[in-house]
Model the fold of this input.
Amino acid sequence: MSGDDIYRRQRFGQKTGFGQFPALLVVDFVNGFHDPEVLGGGNIPDAVMATLPLLEFARNRAIPVIFTRIVYAPDGSDASLWCQKVPRLQDLTEEAPESQIVATLAPRPGEIVIRKTQASAFFGTHLAACLVAKKIDTLIVTGCTTSGCVRATVVDAMSLNYRTIVASDCVGDRALDPHRANLFDMGQKYSDLMRGAEIIAALDRRIAETVDSTEMA
Amino acid sequence: MSGDDIYRRQRFGQKTGFGQFPALLVVDFVNGFHDPEVLGGGNIPDAVMATLPLLEFARNRAIPVIFTRIVYAPDGSDASLWCQKVPRLQDLTEEAPESQIVATLAPRPGEIVIRKTQASAFFGTHLAACLVAKKIDTLIVTGCTTSGCVRATVVDAMSLNYRTIVASDCVGDRALDPHRANLFDMGQKYSDLMRGAEIIAALDRRIAETVDSTEMA
Amino acid sequence: MSGDDIYRRQRFGQKTGFGQFPALLVVDFVNGFHDPEVLGGGNIPDAVMATLPLLEFARNRAIPVIFTRIVYAPDGSDASLWCQKVPRLQDLTEEAPESQIVATLAPRPGEIVIRKTQASAFFGTHLAACLVAKKIDTLIVTGCTTSGCVRATVVDAMSLNYRTIVASDCVGDRALDPHRANLFDMGQKYSDLMRGAEIIAALDRRIAETVDSTEMA
Amino acid sequence: MSGDDIYRRQRFGQKTGFGQFPALLVVDFVNGFHDPEVLGGGNIPDAVMATLPLLEFARNRAIPVIFTRIVYAPDGSDASLWCQKVPRLQDLTEEAPESQIVATLAPRPGEIVIRKTQASAFFGTHLAACLVAKKIDTLIVTGCTTSGCVRATVVDAMSLNYRTIVASDCVGDRALDPHRANLFDMGQKYSDLMRGAEIIAALDRRIAETVDSTEMA
Done:
């Protein structure tokens, strides 16, 4: 029996859908994860490009946008075990070019930028508190890498009962096999998978419906 | 360039090794994750069998053993979004046969059993506090599923700077492709991978060395 | 300059008010914290009585009710440092009479009961996830002790950006000086303070307004 | 019965003592919490002075030193509910003079500085992970305010099973009543209380003993 069959038979992969208040989460789209000579490569540049319309849509519709970056202290004081496992992470400091968000997606004033030291955007950060403050119940997730920080973030979002939609063409990885394997895992267990354009269409429909029902009232 | 090549070139997959104070963590080896008719199957029964000598070794050497189980309230009061994604999780209640640890690995008095509602053994539990209390710095991880609760637990352990050794033949999954893909991800990014017998040999050697140096002193 | 003066001058103690979706949190009103021969006494019995109308109100208006209890494993496996500091905490096990919620406030099926091992209802529990699942943005807090588990819970609730209203006559402590000092701290820094009857009146008004605006629409 | 009596009779206030690996935690000794015109005053300047010898001792003996600061984004993007309760917190941004650690205690390269947005040094930070990385089991706590960030940090440290010694003359508050009330609460429930000089003497003795036993071996 193939993997798909047993997952279907055990009823994995149900849809959880959208809640009422989405935010767009852009995970670790920084220069160092874009560049194949540092920690990037693969389909990450494509995922950055595919994120552009989603980001523009969110900004136009006042959907909160939250970015994440990995930032370690330049003096090595908070170096983690993860930096032993993956030594180049240590280069991602506040001022290093590698840790700056790619220019095409640069955050605007008022958009939250979460600094983190680990894979998950929730670990050791105030992201959970920010989501409560903004009454968010749904995370649209883009970023990289699919098998690293995106996956870890999505697992934590599900653990906290946030509905999560992974924008499948807006997440990328340095190698395609882990990318695909992690999309499978997330789709079966932790999030819905939709392409960026589908997400835009779905949100557009929901906003239109809300406006309609308000006008009719 | 294949996935392996780019991971090697970017210097992923360094070894983090053992610390001084290991604990054995047995993740979710419960009847419901053993049985292919519920949430189990695949190589999980083999992983249970392979865990037996590791568990016996830990008990003989006074290495702390910690078990985890998923437990939801029988009245549905704490049902999570995860139970929408994977409906059968809801059946794992305190008294349900599906949520009991498999008989061959039954916990003994004094061994910690962590009840959890999410994938990671750290999420919403006092596992981190228990590790501090016991001065643990290294987790030997067995259990299931490789692509679910084992992976989520290992990511959180790394995030907390615990050295993690995944016992590669003592973790199992309902389907082999996700099992292998998640072993790859964990080995590259979050933990060392060793077979159970190698872990026993390595710990044996370390204990022998400690005894030697004490006797010589 | 007295404490009050400097707090006022530095602009502490602003009101944060109610959000839209309150829950009633009943912290550790268990037999052992009621009984002065165990860990209780002082004005805790009065606070239990004062909580009754608030609990009844919440149940009538379908405001979610969440209880907490301290529960340690009977075999001592998860005993904490806190049990060294306060040895009698160790007696609060799943089946012990001391750790049962007082009969007059007994939880009903469907009401969440959070088991915890530390002061804060958030520490090592899935309370934060439950609040997200139920879209709660405001916690009405009753329970005991004011200077212990209530205070710790309120600090964490504020940290997570939940609006918190401490029902000042529905929280109690074994001694009155710490009770009063902690009400002061919470009122200045972490929560609004209102009497139970005022909270009922305020919620009643809000519900009436909501119904009105719906009917008018 | 006075508060003290019932706490004694219920066996609160046991000593938890030192572990093997202490760190010195300096909580929020920043200009804004020093200055009575901002958020400081009271005995905070005295507590800063009393911390100097403890800090020098820690540095001489290679005891890790960890500082904390409150830092909010200057664009208001991560403003919290706490900033509504205490509006001046919002002024504590990365570059603001109010949020810089007081010059006499300035951190040296290699000393961890934890940025936080809430009272507890553990909330939304990687402090817990840093303690694991450095194998710390004991926190010596200085800083301000006793009734705010010190108290919240000490409760979380206890919850994580870290032994905590509050240096009673090295913590301060804008008003003395809350200072004293919170020392009482912490001493009864969450930490040992010792004066800075006593802590130095105790650690000196422990280090001497360790050297002795090593030399004799």
The interface with chain B takes residues 128-133, 135, 137, 159-162, 217 of chain D (CB under 8 Å). DSSP finds eight helices and six strands in chain D.
